[in-house]
Amino acid sequence: xxxxxxxxxxxxxxxxxxxxxAAIGALSLAAGLVLAPDRxxxxxxxxxxxxxxxxVGGAVFIAVHRLSGAGWATALRRxxxxxxxxxxxxxxxxxxxxxxRPNLYAWVNPSAELEHLMVGFxxxxxxxxxxxxxxxxxxxxWSWLGWSLVRVSRLQDLDPHRKGYRExxxxxxxxxxxxxxxxxxxxxxxxxxxxxxxxSTVFGFYNLAGMFVAVLAMxxxxxxxxxxxxxxxxVLSGEHLHDLGKLLMGFCTVWAYLWFCQYMLIWYSxxxxxxxxxxxxxxxxxxxxxxxxxxxxxxxxxLILLPASVKRSSSAMAKIATLLLLGRVVDLYLMIVPSxxxxxxxxFGIYEVGMLAGAIGLIALLMxxxxxxxxxxxxxxxxxxxxxxxxx
Amino acid sequence: xxxxxxxxxxxxxxxxxxxxxxxLEGRPTALWWMAFxxxxxxxxxxxxxxxxxxxxxxxxxxxxNTVGWAFDITNFVFWIGIGHAGTLISAVLFLFRQRWRTSVxxxxxxxxxxxxxxxxLFPLIHMGRPWFAYWMFPYPNGRGPLWVNFRSPLxxxxxxxxxxxxxxxxxxxxxxxxxxxxxxxxxxxxxxxRIMGFVSLGWNGSYRTxxxxxxxxxxxxxxxxxxxxxxxxxxxxxxxxxVIPGWHTTxxxxxxVAGAVFSGMAMVLTLMLIARKTMHLEDxxxxxxxxxxxxLILLTGSIVGLSYATExxxxxxxxxxxxxxxxxxxxxxxxxxxxxxxxxxxxxxxxLFWIRRVRENFVFVFILTLFVNVGMWFERYVLIxxxxxxxxxxxxxxxxxxxxxELATLLGSFGLFFTLFLIFIRFVPVIAMAxxxxxxxxxxxxxxxx
Amino acid sequence: MQRENRRFYLGVFGTExxxxxxxxxxxxxxxxxxxxxxxxxxxxxxKAMGLRYTRLPLFTLAMGILGAGLKIxxxxxxxxxxxxxxxxxxxxxxLPAFIPVTFExxxxxxxxxxxxxxxxxxxxxxxxxAKLPVHGVTDDKFALVLEETDxxxxxxxxxxxxxxxxxxxxxxxxxxxxxx
Lengths: 392, 450, 180
Prior knowledge:
The complex is a heterotrimer.
Chain A: H1 12-35, H2 37-67, H3 78-84, H4 87-100, H5 112-115, H6 120-125, H7 128-158, H8 164-190, H9 203-229, H10 238-269, H11 272-281, H12 286-305, H13 308-311, H14 314-341, H15 350-371, H16 384-388
Chain B: H1 13-22, H2 30-56, H3 71-95, H4 105-126, H5 153-186, H6 190-199, H7 207-240, H8 252-278, H9 287-318, H10 321-332, H11 336-348, H12 356-360, H13 362-389, H14 404-427, H15 433-439
Helix pairs in contact in B: 2-14, 3-4, 3-7, 3-8, 3-13, 4-5, 4-14, 5-6, 5-7, 7-8, 8-9, 8-13, 9-10, 10-11, 11-13
Chain C: E1 6-13, H1 16-28, E2 32-37, H2 45-49, H3 56-82, H4 95-121, E3 142-147, H5 155-164, E4 169-175
Antiparallel strand pairs in C: 1-3, 1-4, 2-3
Helix pairs in contact in C: 3-4
């Protein structure tokens, strides 16, 4: 079977819209860097970590799906593959923050009250060259493994005799074995260390759960869109949507569970070095964001997704997915920005809106590029038949 | 599209009924009697020990003022954890449509129920005056009424275990009804017919009932999945809500849940590998089943390993000297032997399951699952004892070693578990026949009906 | 009062494909399907029989809400109203600490409530005598029970249709009530 490469493009108006959004994002970033540098950098950090998460998360989805021997999502695999192409851009944004705005991290030039913390292991771990080297290492590792998974999958399209299945298994195993540790450590580095005194062991898992919800939401959104366009007609069945809906519901509940575990334990034990994190976030206007975060990441999607009919409706699913993707931004924003701006409340305005629009535009443009250049449905995968003809 | 068959030997539904019901008919083998007597003697030993400690008071344990929780809470957490794999197999894997679960879910659910019974025993004994156990229940009483403290994790625990036991029992029984009916309809003896007729509730396989049954099964699976997570989460909160270094850490809930599934999965495999050999279930428990379970062990074992690493890392990172001390003390203090046993059995040896040849060698698998059982028991022991025995106040530092009574109680709980399990395999279909019949066609080319 | 006798027409089948096929066919022909008996849940049979959905999930939801609501109220009432005790300086209304037990009771109500509803609704009662259409439907046989609703019921063509699906046995019965 020869692979039919799909030349997939947006409608001209959509293409123009997304380009304009990306341009607005670039302008807001540029303006912000001059006029309100802390806000601009903080937002860049939020959006870059979100984008990196989508990129590496796409690869993790492919790896987990491959290792579990499941067949159901094979037909949709090009979508997480396209998400891997978000990694470079996210990495550039993230590294830009880490390299050019070290002062976002209070431990870089510790104040007098933080000085006593920066001794022993913490002093060694939180030192700039090592910190940057770690970031480069994590990003390089994920990019290599993610890109390898994509490459093997596409080569398999072209050459049916390739033993791609075993090769992809090796990369998938390697990613699965290293990803948990590296993502947790990266969360500690990039987010938790913004507040050098605070620590929470579950923080890495919490961030991972949020990332994975966003990955599933992104897959849902893109798949629904591709079905509406026609490429996924006959590919994305109601069963697939139903399963994606169940997964979304399940993982947003896992996120809520970890959210509660962290909050409840810190609330209950009431240690001064731990409660600081929540004290900032429960005061003033941050408190509203605190509850907004819980509402749009769990309460709303969970309640809306309860009936099976909603999980099978593509328009409802697209809306929930959008909500959860926004929820990921809010969650990251709440993890990151209060640590930088401190008590008071979010300074929400033109820079935030502009940069978020920019990120959406850029991700949309990158996703369509990622989908181009290969058949929209993997061609000869063993499990494809199972995926296409599957019903629960 | 070829798939490996789940059930070997080209069975028909009739074969399944025969193969599984046959195990309940006829007299028990000599091997069964030997195992049963051994389990019963252990149970007897435990009964003597429990009677003695209740009559005398729990001063007969090795506890002291500093180490106020040790052996019994270790056993409690260990047994609860064992139970969780049963729910994982019956509920979580059902939701994920892992059809291989049908061969093992009945036994795994039985294991859950027996393990929860063993677990419940320990806090009950620890109360010292178990006849007042009903004080845990919030009933209007003459003491005020002074209600139980709903802010206390120990009260949460009571509710969690009670709910877990009830729901697991309902789930297990529900799954069994069609099979009990099948046994009833082929029973020869009048008493067997009567008893099975009573407990099978008049099930006749009507599809109107089947349809609702399937819905109910899905609903229960959907409820049992968060339930099983909540139970071990609450167990972890018994520790994590405290201010003890090494106990108060936010990763405890997911880490305990993963550990519970890890240990329970190992116990299921241990039991199923024995059952497979002694009860000749080779066609029903195949490479596919064992492979899937070893992969789950690998996954959960790796999460457990990641949690150990995270705890250690964050203790170092926190700059909190008490946390740092606890973790160094675990690895290098008086209980270092237990700590390294735990690491070796839980983190290192299960990594061998990455290798396909290991996964397919059942002797190896059996040995590795025993390691996991041992390792997970030691995990709780290390966690509880090492965190307590070095207090904030060096003057109250103490040691701990279990007394003979405590050891006898632990052995007794194993006796109870295996006694119940051996009775189970004699009286109830050990494999869910009605579910296995539904997966027979998987991976088999259907003969074209002429 | 003497009830009218009803006539039932039974086909016994040996495989799930046959019972699915026969049921589908019977439904397409507009025959009255009283019930189908099967040793296990055959995927797609509910569609073939044209069964309506069940309201059990709604009942579960209602029981869950009831259990959670009662429990959260009870915890608040005992801890903050009936006999407030200061334990460890925790506030009277310790909502985060009330959630675990609330969750457990929600699951308990929902789970046991639904199981009970199912047992009662399906008349699965301890000691109740099972009425089987033919022996073996709990083992390896499938039975399709049709009702001869009126004179137009064409036994011959139905028998022919059954035979297409390798019917093992055809039974005709006159009873006052369906088996269920």
